[in-house]
Amino acid sequence: MSAVPVTLRRTVELEIDGEAVRAREGETILGACRRSGLDIPTLCFGETLTPVNACRVCMVEVEGSRVLVPSCARKVEDGMKVKTASERVRHARKMVLEFLGSSVDLSTTPRADEWMAEYDARPERYGPPAPPAAEGERDRAQAGHHHAGDGQTAATVAQPVKVDNELYVRDYAKCILCYKCVEGCGTDWQNTFAIAVAGRGFETRIATEYAVPLPGSACVYCGNCIAVCPTGALMFKSEHDRRAEGTWDESQQTQTDTICPYCGVGCNLTLHVQDNTIVKVTSPLDHDVTSGNLCVKGRFGFQHVQSRAPKGV
């Protein structure tokens, strides 16, 4: 039996915040920072996705570089000197968070409040917060068209929550255009291409082809877009309904790993349970079979667990 060839990566040495750090050649600055125990805020970064450098909150300062660089995509180099908390970096993060907070609903974005406090970000400086989505309200922003004379643009119109199926909802008032859902639906994983970026400038949005309702699109309901969404713009309908009722409580939820029962692939499932009821299903990002991805059965086919036969049957 022939030996399996092993590719050895060269080790590079750099300096992060004045400390000497060793990293693997090809590793990103973000990866080296995290291994060193440094907490760099990220929104558009996904461990299983190709970096798109969209959100700009992970920017760091590199000596010799005219501009700040995205730590999620910039590779480490020998002799590189990186500053992750300089005044320039902190100011840039503060401004990005303020811009996002003034135009997007970040109420379901994990750690958003923590980062706002850490960088003294005050979105209210730019006026009242973005209007929340109003379910049932006419989607005037659909396909980028607006009624003349309404005095509003795409940036100010409150988009309604799109509820057109029983599996997940789309609340684009929370969308920061990180493109993670597009990447997950496209070449990175699913290769379905059911959604893409439409429009330009203030009209930029995530949309199905020709803005058709989700059931009429190419969507296969794998839910991998939900798995990577960092803000809750894409959300399980079960979670959305509980939040609307005021009964969603993650502090009371337990998580149990198991194997999907539907086929022989062996996908790992993480069951999120509240009040003895499965409220959503995820998959570990580091699982060598799924890498966090599932099919429609694995992610949404859990209702039968709660099904109870009528008495006497």
Describe this structure as you would to a colleague:
The model is unreliable at 134-156 (pLDDT under 50). This protein is an alpha+beta fold and 313 residues long. It has helices spanning 29-35, 87-103, 112-118, 180-185, 224-228, 237-245, 296-300, 303-306; strands at residues 11-16, 19-24, 59-62, 69-70, 81-83, 168-170, 195-198, 205-208, 234-236, 254-259, 268-274, 277-282. Strand 7 and strand 8 form a beta hairpin. It has 2 domains: 10-130, Ubiquitin-like (UB roll) (Roll); 156-306, Alpha-Beta Plaits. It has 8 helices and 12 strands. The longest helix has 17 residues, at 87-103. A 5-stranded mixed β-sheet has the order 2-1-5-3-4, sandwiched between helices. Helix content is 19%, strand content 17%.
Q: What is the domain total for the residues?
A: 2
CATH architecture group name of the largest domain: 2-Layer Sandwich
Task: Estimate percent helicity.
Answer: 10-25%
Largest sheet: 5 strands, mixed
Number of strands: 12
The chain-level structural class is alpha+beta
> How large is the share of residues in beta strands?
15-25%
Q: For the residues shown, what is the average pLDDT?
A: 88
**C-alpha Rg, in Å?**
22 Å
Q: Give the overall shape, derived from the CA principal axes.
A: globular
Q: Oligomeric form of this entry? A: single chain
Physical arrangement of strands within the biggest beta sheet: 2-1-5-3-4
Number of contiguous helices: 8
